[in-house]
Design a protein that fits this description.
Elements: E1 3-7, H1 13-25, E2 28-31, H2 41-53, E3 72-80, E4 83-84, H3 86-94, E5 101-108, H4 113-123, E6 128-136, H5 143-159
Parallel strand pairs: 1-2, 1-3, 3-5, 5-6
Antiparallel strand pairs: 3-4
């Protein structure tokens, strides 16, 4: 089965989860890259939260891989302002997932996964979400436990497609 893990990561947390998924499934990855936006320092942090809350989009590099070429697509985002990161919102508006099954994951400090997953579902019309995984920042501190949790979930998602 051909699997793609698409994600955006500012701090590296969402990237870590994406890499665990890809490693466990032998999947390809595509990192969503923002252009023309500074997300460093306190002002960058505030802009990021506001962008999430306001459901804004941001400019991103043109995706290199076509989700339609894969059997299963994992979509990952950090939670910003209790919602989806603008770069992921832009990605989902730019690509066609068609009828492809997808699995949703996010990383967060404390909460906001519900709105984040709802936003992804709204933007990926026609695609069927198989399941969701929310990873708390505190869970990233225990790499072995994180790897077991992510690997088990990713394999459960893949089993639904086979």
């Amino acid at each position: 089965m051909k699997t793609l893990v698409v994600y955006y990561s500012k701090s590296g947390n969402t990237r870590r989860v994406a890499q665990e998924i890809a490693k466990g499934l032998g999947a390809e990855t595509e990192e969503i890259v923002e252009v023309g936006v500074k997300r460093t320092g306190i002002l960058g942090f505030l802009r990021a939260g506001r962008g999430g809350m306001m459901r804004k989009k941001s400019r991103i590099e043109t995706p290199k891989k076509r989700p339609g070429d894969f059997d299963l697509v994992f979509v990952g985002s950090p939670v910003w302002g209790w919602n989806l990161a603008p770069a992921v919102r832009s990605y989902l508006a730019a690509v066609d997932l068609g009828q492809k099954p997808m699995a949703l994951f996010c990383t967060m400090g404390s909460n906001g996964e519900k709105k984040t997953f709802e936003s992804i579902r709204e933007l990926a019309t026609g695609s069927r979400a198989l399941g969701e995984l929310a990873v708390l920042q505190s869970e990233l501190a225990t790499p072995d436990a994180l790897a077991r949790k992510v690997d088990a979930w990713a394999k459960e998602m893949a089993a639904q497609v086979r």
